[in-house]
Structure formats: structure tokens, C-alpha cells
Specification:
two-stranded parallel ribbon, alpha/beta, about 35% helix, about 220 residues
Length: about 220
């Protein structure tokens, strides 16, 4: 299948590009500044997903789309508004509808929606209000857009991202009761995304993923 990866420059997006190609899938890598070291035969689209033409090119010929973009726009929500995530998602959803592409997996993060407060004291009481509030307010808007899109969506909220090698063993939680959020490698987030896009797992569900541990 052909998978369009939004935010393929680094992190989860780059890991997904690598794993999808290793699994024999075709990939369209989309990003503002893609790495020159990406495979020469890779289909690339350079630019912002907020641009309708970039979005149109990104989904052209795709069977599924993964949103992996999301690292800039820090600051408290009461002082700053971030809206590029939700605006880009709205443009992407419209392009997918126009092209007849239905499968979408979106990476947000622990702290979005009803997972707010699950990241422990430092994340919930300091990082979220003082540094991440504006970005996560926009991730909340993004999640609402995705759920209302009419597409075949999955929202993936990873725990704390690290660069460890993939384990391919991690907890996947739809019920957050008693969940103790831990780290997860970017490679394992990419593995989960492939399960969503290729295997059709967790359709119309919001999942939290992290090292497989649950508080008692």
C-alpha cells in the first residue's frame, strides 16, 4: 500500500518512513525540510501541510495517511495561541475527502483530551501549563476535527518519547483507569501506526501507548 507520512523530517515520522519501506510499502514523505539522506526513490512533498496544494500532493495516490507532525508552538495557553496543528489537520482532512482517501492515524500525545494529568506531577503541573499548554490546546482541537471528519481514523497518544530501539511490546490503552504512563520509543510509535494503517487496528478509537505497565 502507499502511505503518506505528514511530518517525515525526523522523530516518529522518519521512523515510520523507514519501517514502512522495510515492510515493502510505498511511502510519500511530507515535510517542511526533508532530509537529503532519505532514499532517492522515495516520493517526497516539501512544504507545509497547511498549504492545500501540499496536502493535495501528499494524499495523491495514497491508501492511508499518518499525521506525525507536531513539535513547535510552545508556551502557556493563557498567553499564546497555537493553531497550526488544527489548521493543517483541517486542510489535510479536506484533501483526503476530495481524493477519496479514508484511513487516517494521527499522533497527538499524553496530555491531550482525557489523558491530561496522566503524565505525572512535572508534566501535569509544570510543563503542561507553562510550556505545552498552547500546543496541547491545539491538539485538543485537532482531535475534535479528526473525530468529526467522517474518515476511518485512529488517534494515537504516546507516552514520553525516547530514542530506544523498537521493542514491539507496549501497552495499548483505551480505558485510562489505573494507567501509569511511561516512556515509549519513537520506533514503537511507528510500529503502532503501521498496525493502524495496514492492519486496520483500533478503528475509530483513541489509544494511549507506552511501556506495558499498569498501576495497581
Amino acid at each position: 500500500m502507499r502511505i503518506a507520512v505528514i511530518g517525515a523530517t525526523l522523530g516518529v515520522g522518519l521512523a515510520l518512513v523507514t519501517q514502512a519501506r522495510q515492510a515493502g510499502h510505498n511511502v510519500t514523505a511530507v515535510g517542511r525540510s526533508l532530509r537529503p539522506s532519505l532514499a532517492p526513490d522515495l516520493v517526497t512533498v516539501t512544504g507545509s501541510i497547511e498549504d492545500p496544494e501540499v496536502a493535495r500532493q501528499a494524499v495523491d495516490g495514497a491508501d492511508a495517511v499518518a499525521w506525525c507532525a507536531g513539535g513547535h508552538g510552545f508556551g502557556p495557553a493563557f498567553l499564546k495561541r497555537v493553531d497550526w496543528v488544527s489548521r493543517g489537520t483541517a486542510v489535510l482532512v479536506e484533501a483526503m475527502r476530495a481524493a477519496g482517501v479514508r484511513r487516517l492515524a494521527v499522533v497527538t500525545g499524553v496530555g491531550a483530551g482525557d489523558s491530561r494529568g496522566l503524565g505525572g506531577f512535572l508534566h501535569a503541573r509544570i510543563l503542561h501549563p507553562l510550556a505545552l499548554g498552547a500546543l496541547y490546546a491545539d491538539k485538543d482541537r485537532q482531535e475534535a476535527l479528526v473525530r468529526a471528519s467522517g474518515l476511518d481514523w485512529t488517534i494515537v497518544r504516546p507516552g514520553f518519547l525516547v530514542d530506544d530501539p523498537p521493542k514491539r511490546r507496549y501497552g495499548v490503552y483505551t480505558d485510562l483507569t489505573g494507567v501509569e504512563v511511561g516512556p515509549i520509543s519513537r520506533s514503537d510509535v511507528a510500529d503502532c501506526l503501521l498496525r493502524c494503517l495496514v492492519g486496520g487496528e483500533w478503528l475509530h478509537e483513541t489509544i494511549l501507548i507506552c511501556d506495558d505497565r499498569r498501576s495497581v
